[in-house]
Amino acid sequence: MTGIQSALLVVTLLTAAANTAIAVADLAGARFVLANSAAVGVPRSWLPRLAALKLAGATGLVLGLADPALRPLGIAAACGLVLLYLGALAFHLRAHVLYNLAFPAFYFATAGASLALAVAS
């Protein structure tokens, strides 16, 4: 296994796990999720759909790792997550909610790293 392949495995599994965890928090209506979504102007009714997108992205990332024939699915999933978190960053900036901008930035960075590594491998 090359260095890029090892990095792809580690970063992609981290991205998938982080997205699964936050999707579960979205679906459970965790207090911090509700407070954050209210602060940035995301309606509570959007949370199940956003969770579904995060879970779909995580699933696509893992499937893309599981089989080389499914690598395009993993790349598409990473693209989708990058776009999702660009939207999250935009909502934070639009609402001037900067105190917790690191959270969507972290998810954006892991999705972007997964995308870059998948394309490079």
Query: What level of helicity do the residues show?
Result: over 70%
How far apart are the first and last residues' alpha carbons, in Å?
A: 11 Å
Domains, number: 1
Uncertain ranges: none
Taken as a percent bin, the fraction of beta residues is under 5%
For the CA atoms, what is the radius of gyration? Answer: 15 Å
Q: What is the count of β-strands? A: 0
| Main sheet makeup | none
Q: What structural category do the secondary elements indicate?
A: mainly alpha
Mean pLDDT: 96
Helical stretch tally:
5
Describe the 3D structure:
The protein has 121 residues and is an all-alpha fold. It has one domain. 82% of the residues lie in helices and 0% in strands. It is built from 5 helices and no strands. α1 packs antiparallel against α3 and α4 runs antiparallel to α5. The longest helix is centred in the N-terminal third of the chain and has 26 residues. The mean pLDDT is 96.
Topology, please?
Blueprint: H1 3-28, H2 31-40, H3 47-66, H4 71-94, H5 102-120
Helix pairs in contact: 1-3, 1-5, 3-4, 4-5
Describe the structure concisely for a colleague:
The protein has one domain.
Notable features of this structure?
121 residues, mainly alpha, 5 helices
